[in-house]
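Async update (no meeting this week)

Hi team, since we skipped the sync, here's where things stand on the single-chain job. The sequence we agreed to prioritize is pasted below, unchanged from the tracker. I ran it this morning and attached the output directly underneath so nobody has to dig for it. Comments welcome in thread, and please keep replies under the output.
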Amino acid sequence: MNLRTKIGWIGVCMAAFIAAFSLNLGGIGDYVASVKANGAAKAAVKPLFSEQELSELRQTIAGEAEKQRIAPVDARIDRVWKAIPGYNGVEVDIDKSVEKTVATGALTPIQFVYKEVAPEVSLRDLGRFPIFKGNPEKKMIAFMINVAWGNEYIQPILDTLEKEQVKATFFLDGSWLKKYPDVAKQIQAKGHEMSNHAYSHPNMSELGRQAAYTQISKTEDLLKSTLAVDNKWFAPPSGDYNQTTIQVAAEQGLMTVLWTIDTVDWKKPPPDTIMRRISAKLEPGALILMHPTASSRDALPGMIRDAKQKGYAIGTVSELLSSSRVPSVVEPES
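Output:
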């Protein structure tokens, strides 16, 4: 290769290098410019609200919280009704209310968030007393269905409860549960609460301590082994009990529950008689006693309809006797 040819190749290579370098410089320059621009944009973003505005918002919410607060009600012993459950209070959650309001991008209207406040004295703090009703400030009722014999009306009762989207508490006689575990599982599968109604439907007040303890424990064992139930309640057959009954139930972790209103369905009254009786006595916290009888089967739709029309929530015994508010004003966790 002569000198002129070499010089030509060197020129071509230099031109290519300069072009590539220029392009790369352009890319680096664009990148640097982009970083600077983004940084400037971020620096230009300011908080939506000043510290002063946020402080004033918090003060406004705190002031309103004092006005809206409802104090909790402690559980107590009533001279007539014995153990009465407590009832949660409610108050504004100031931090969450500020957070939720700011998240809307505006300071008004204020987005209040509430929380329930438990009473200082709970039902179990009261000691060993029977329970006949829920808290009178809680507009809820519960059906307690005692099952000791007869299955022919259970399915239509379950059908009505399902249609009306109502959950009840079934208190099971242990000997019945042992004989009909599949029926019990069918009831449980519908979402109803399962509890203890002794083993052989005795008059509990006539039993000695050991016999009373065994009546409860045998059924409790069956509830655990057959239905995997972690039970809380004991309903004495025929409402017959004495202090020993309450004591031996408590020793097994159970509270003794009776009723506020009795359908007296075992006397086979006409359904409209039951409905009138229940409607006339309905009150917040009422525990309504029934059995799987033809009378209660036919009266149940009317009892539920009347309660709903009067604005009552209907829950299980556990739901009724809890201190939770109805309706809940607390937002569910997301």
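Quick observations from my side:
The mean pLDDT is 89.
The chain has eleven helices and twelve strands.
Reply here if anything looks off.
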